[in-house]
Please model this.
Amino acid sequence: MATNTSWYALKNTEGVVSPALLVYPERIRQNIQTMLGMSQGPDFLRPHVKTHKTAEIVNLQLEQGIYKFKCATIAEAELLARCGAPDVLLAMQPVGANIERFLKLVENYPKTQFSALVDHPIIVERMGRRAREKNRPVSLWMDINTGMDRTGILPDETGIELYRKMHAHSHIEAMGLHTYDGHIGNTDVARREEECQKAFDLVLALRDTLAAEGIEVPNVVAGGSPTFPFHARREGVEASPGTTLLWDAGYARLYPEMDFLPAAVLFTRIISKPAKGILCTDLGHKSIAPEMPFPRVRFLDKADWQQKGQSEEHFVIECENSDKYPIGDTAYALPVHICPTVAKYARLQVVSEGEIVDTWEVAARDQTLTL
Model:
């Protein structure tokens, strides 16, 4: 039996399989309320589902009036449609088989307004051609590269020309502009806001140039979690945070001024004590995102544990007082990077008042649902 009365602790761990990822609905609800409070209301909030990929968390947002969502995969888009989400943006340019999958989504779920990002004339031409052949308009946003150099078109004459093509096409509804500024992460709030504004000015300049030609840009979607506080204050801009729903140790350390609660906790056990001062838990690469340098987690109840090494099934810990920790002892930890950690788990264990009360399937961790 656990005697720890901390918010994350289970009252009884005997039947809990480890490692596990625990989630706390009350905290998720509070994070949703915080998101709404920071934004200008549901019309200007478009949370990303890539962090959780879970229907129940989508439903918690729908219950609080959020109706616009962003996603990274066709499976996530289909999950949102199954939940009854009215407005879904696929924030990944469809290529290859995903062009037909996206168009099939539009056909199969007519109650959801689907749209997608594009940043290249080849894809605009292909999407437009298939939409014309199906006699069904397709809704597209132009993705702009403001410095991250991952996706998007530069906001110069090439970007202007691409949006002209989208706007003029008979079977393309040009939805507006999208930009993700994930390269902006300065821990100094003022500097981060300054860098965010500088990048966003490029978007505004492109929009103004198009407006001068008589081409309306009806909407703008901008940012992720680190720049959410700034974009959330912009008039007429949809802000699109994602990590804010579950939060993690990485963002909590970098951005302590952001008032979000950790709502997902890793549960692990000591499985071996191979040498004096050494412990090993069952929290291996397969159970937590391993791309970060150490520390990869923040142990909530073990301040004297130092992370030494990790392999597929094992997490090796150095501890001067290892004698006080018996084999089978439990530990709770916040992942440094929650998004790829969730994808390691088929199911989330739902905790309320120290008890596991439900299990939520991470339904969109697979590449496909039905399409």
